[in-house]
Amino acid sequence: MSDSHNQRYDCVVLGAGLAGLYAAYLLRQSNFSVGVLEARERVGGRVLTWRTLAHLQHAELGPEFIDSNHHRVIRLAERFNLTLSTRPDFWGVSPSPPFGRKAHRAWRQFWNEVYALAAQVPDRHAPWHAPESLRMLDCVTMRAFAERLGVWAAGEPLFRRYTQNMEATEPENLSVYSVAAQEAFYGKGVHAGVYRFVDGTDSLPRALADAFCALGGDLRLSAPVDAVEQTPDGVRVYARQAGKPLTVQASYAIVALPFPVLTQLEWRPAFAPWRVDALQCAGKGAVIRTLVQFRRRFWREEPFPRVYADRADISAIWEETDLQAGESGVLSFWTGGDAARHWASLSEGARIDECLRVLEVMYPDCRAQVIAARSYDWQADPFAQHAYIHHAPGYLTEALPLLRQPEGRLHFAGDYLSLFVGYMEGALESGERAAHAVQDALRPPA
Ligand SMILES: Cc1cc2nc3c(=O)[nH]c(=O)nc-3n(C[C@H](O)[C@H](O)[C@H](O)COP(=O)(O)OP(=O)(O)OC[C@H]3O[C@@H](n4cnc5c(N)ncnc54)[C@H](O)[C@@H]3O)c2cc1C
Ligand 1 atom closest to Cα of 422? Predict the structure, then answer.
């Protein structure tokens, strides 16, 4: 890392999450001078691996699962020699008792309709270009659509569990057209959540940051950006580092910050009103992840509980350590959507206690086995302020195509700009797109 202040770069990147790091790495590979400013004392943003566990085990507080079509993640893992593994011995349950046949029939009926809609999306890479009949469904929520089909009452618990687990929200907040467009975008034959990083997800941002620095890139940690000014020939970024003001100049900027943070910074000139309006359409997905390490993996001895807790606030429990050696093991508890918002008023200790209460119903002696625990509320993280985006009504067809546009010398990246909605792959894809745009601007094609 260079000590020089008031440095001038070809491009300055705001944020060292996966989107920013990948953009910076690609630009540096093409020999452009690049500086990255990151508010935290670490890289990776929402990628957060808990590594202070006993017996050298680790577990994820942020992302974990990788789909078979996340080709950028998979390629980077290969490039940096990071092992990805499938999940041959995965263990997971929902603490609610299994839902009945009626609920499953309603669920299937809903998805058959969604698949039929997905087949009508004319361009899966630009679902906002669609006939009016489909675009109108972007104003219809998943719940309203299920009600129209007459399957809501029977299927409600399944709809809720799905949106809390996958979309970090409730069926009332999710556009049904977005659900169909995601199906169309993914296509058939994709295996969801098949891979994980054996040594922890944070090995990916760390490897990217190391590769960027090894190429001579300039990475500044603990350097929160306060203001960004566009001048006739470039961009000036005002940050702080070690309590001192830091000004960085560049020809272009890639803004790879989480969307809730964007409107809290000072932009000179101010963002166009259309960007401010579009940002308001983005849904802030809420997740609290709680991890508990136990001395023994008792859940392996009796894999399916005889009694269920019947609590809807924890929608999934699974083992984090199935790819790791040792007698001890870690369970992950997922709280998403409205339940995560309600839990936000609880202390970390109270949240851990709630998780153990639920587990005790299924495994009565579990509390005695606890070694360590941690609970992380992503809404309360000042540099994230949400877990990941959900497509609220209007976001996909109205806001997303606008938000992808540059504004002057500012280009934008981040998972909220991708059709890999709320995935690391989406962050990488958006970073790649922004890097190519800046590259073209710096070195116009001959
Ligand atoms: C609980 C949870 C579970 C998830 N599960 C999965 C999963 O299983 N699989 C998957 O693929 N994805 C998953 N995701 C999504 C994945 O984590 C994100 O899509 C991805 O990490 C987003 O990367 P990003 O670079 O767009 O944003 P971020 O990682 O948020 O990066 C933005 C960066 O900007 C920095 N920043 C903020 N404000 C400032 C400022 N003022 N100045 C400078 N820097 C600033 C932040 O500190 C951060 O480093 C999950 C996310 C969460 C929270």
Answer: 19
Q: Which residues contact 18 (CB under 8 A, 6 or more apart)?
A: 44, 45, 47, 204, 205, 208, 415, 424, 427, 428, 431
Q: Enter the pTM of the model.
A: 0.97
For the Cβ of 45 lying below 6 angstroms from any atom of ligand 1, the answer is yes
- How would CATH label the architecture of 8-46+202-282+392-442? 3-Layer(bba) Sandwich (3.50)
What is the third-level CATH fold of 50-87+193-197+286-380?
Polyamine Oxidase; Chain A, domain 2 (3.90.660)
Q: What are the tens digits of pLDDT across the range 241-294?
A: 988 999 999 999 999 999 999 999 999 999 999 999 999 999 999 999 999 999
Q: What is the CATH class of 101-186?
A: mainly alpha
- Output the pLDDT for position 404: 97
User: Exposed, middle or buried: residue 194 (CB in 10 Å: 0-12, 13-18, 19+)?
Assistant: middle
Answer yes or no: is pLDDT of 100 > 80. Answer: yes
266 and 425 Cβ atoms separated by less than 8 Å: no
CA of 232 to the centre of ligand 1 (A): 32
Atom from ligand 1 closest to the CA of residue 239: 42
